[in-house]
Automatic annotation (TrEMBL):
Keywords (A to Z) from UniProt: Hydrolase, Membrane, Transmembrane, Transmembrane helix
Chain ranges passing through the membrane: 422-443
Species of provenance: Ridgeia piscesae
Cited SUPFAM superfamilies: Carbon-nitrogen hydrolase (SSF56317)
Identification of the protein by name: CN hydrolase domain-containing protein
Gene3D superfamilies with a match to the protein in the record: Carbon-nitrogen hydrolase (3.60.110.10)
InterPro entries, per the entry: Biotinidase/VNN, C-N_Hydrolase, C-N_Hydrolase_sf, Vanin_C
The keyword Signal is assigned to this record: no
Amino acid sequence: MYPFLEEVPDPQRTTWNPCENNTSMKKKEFQERLSCMAKKYGLYLVANLGTFEPCDPKREWKCPKDGRYQYNTNVAFDPTGRLVARYRKYHTFFSERVTFDTPTTVDYSFFDTPFGRFGTFVCFDVLFREPAVTLIETWRVDSIAFSTAWINVLPIFDAVPFHAAFATALNVNFLSANLHYLPMNITGSGIYEPKGTLVYRSDRKSTTGKLLTASVHDKAPIVVRHDVKFSRDVSWDKRYFRSTLFGDTYHFVTLASNKSVAAVCNKHVCCHLDYEFADTKPGEKYALGAFDGLHTLDGVYYIQVCSVLKCAGASREGCGAPVKMADTHFRWLNLTGNFSSPYVSPSLVTSDVNQAPGQWEYDGRSLVSGRTKAGLLWATLMARVYNRDNIVNIQPRPEREVRSDTSGVMSVMVAHCERCTVWLFAFCNAVALLASGGLLFVFGA
């Protein structure tokens, strides 16, 4: 892998324009191409690539034996080709940890443009407080350029609705550029505002990528979060059953009648649903589920969830299982939960895992929908409770393997790149192009 990595300077310490000064650093081919592209077209350009930093194992106890740190990195160039931001991924995913290191401190990487302040981070980072929340709340970032290789997990953890929901929860514009590699179920890019989805693509059949464009508010309209307190006359159903969703044990109650109210609790979280079916198709079963706890499958983070979803089949065990198609329509629904965190992500997804922009809204308290154009797969409110992430001891990360070969992981990533964009030759998660005037692009999908 090392021959494909580049050394990227810290733009806070060094002024670096690879397009104009292509002799001052070795191993800079990717940066030069990206820099010249930004300069040629007058763009702010954010891209993902693999980088390295030399270190001395004799002086630095964390320095790997091969004498270098390796990072999964986002870089940003301005319209002159100058490097304006460098972000080294802080929360590496499990499969990355044999290849990439974690920086000793979090990079809070952002850059100012005539149309707002942009921050950047990578993939798994979106699930954690750092750097995302600090970038937005402390450094006043109003837009995020996000690269990812997001593996879709149904229900709830699908790339497009999950990232659109993040934009609402954190009140930011969110440009999500995903790798497009169907054999690993990696797809789904979009441009999102706090009030909804502007454009997205989640093609599960085509092998080609696509450029997405949208005009975005430089100061996005925000969603104001309201605390929820249920009245004493709410009837909480104690006849719940348990079923698993992505490794978490939910409490579920079945939606039985055509028009009714459902309510269920799990620990400290209670979920309330007013609903009416417009039609029900034979064999389709829906349930309201609640979860309050530490998620530990493919990551450790504390979530509270209220979700009304279609079950896979008629059995209780099918509630929480992946489902892609639905024919049952709701005439209306109103979903509310009493979460202990202000960071609440709303999503509503219809048949064939499609967004339903304009067919529902979140007012900071409830997710409300009229009749959707397609059958409902799920409507969910998910709260991230960051301050409870560390309630268990996490095993230390394994030391990165020292590799001398140039095959293995790199050959796979090059194959991935053939399915996204010719602009990025190494890790190629995505590229975001930010044009003056507020027209934003993402490539990947």
